[in-house]
Design a protein that fits this description.
By secondary structure, this protein is of the alpha+beta class. The chain has helices spanning 16-25, 32-44, 107-117, 120-125, and strands spanning 8-12, 46-50, 53-58, 64-69, 73-81, 86-93, 98-105, 127-128. The strands form two sheets. A four-stranded antiparallel beta sheet has the order 1-2-3-4, covered by helices on one side. A four-stranded mixed beta sheet has the order 7-6-5-8.
């Protein structure tokens, strides 16, 4: 019996620019925690956006997994970073919890895809910070 098929829109890790910028910032002692965070994200963080759900695999050694189906989303907010080359997304769920996605490549294109799957109410309150 075949499983339900999913069409993958995006699958991959965080944008490489996040790692490069934070490695350069790591040359100062003050920014070392940011550099360590970027290295951990580059090693173990993976995103998968399909027509059915958003999956984020992360944590130490990639042991944490979060799956969100689109009808549970009440709001999606984006923030550009890295001079607009990549961005962060915060997905708010019906129970009030939030899923943060950092250094998402092609974040505008991915946001547009996700917004086509949202309810009209969620679509009306979602968008970029400052818009």
């Amino acid at each position: 019996m075949p499983g339900i098929s999913e069409d993958v829109f995006y699958e991959g890790g965080p944008h490489w620019g996040d790692l490069v910028i934070n490695l350069l910032l790591g040359l100062t002692v003050i920014c070392l925690p940011l550099t360590v965070g970027a290295i951990v994200r580059a090693l173990w963080l993976r995103y998968r956006i399909t027509n059915r759900r958003i999956t984020v695999i992360g944590g130490w050694m990639g042991r944490d997994r979060s799956d969100v189906i689109y009808n549970e989303i009440t709001k999606v907010v984006t923030v550009p970073r890295g001079w607009g080359a990549y961005g962060d997304m915060v997905v708010t769920l019906k129970d009030g919890s939030r899923l943060e996605m950092r250094a998402v490549p092609r974040f505008r294109e991915i946001y547009d895809y996700i917004s086509t799957k949202l309810s009209p109410a969620a679509k009306s309150v979602s968008g970029a910070i400052g818009s």
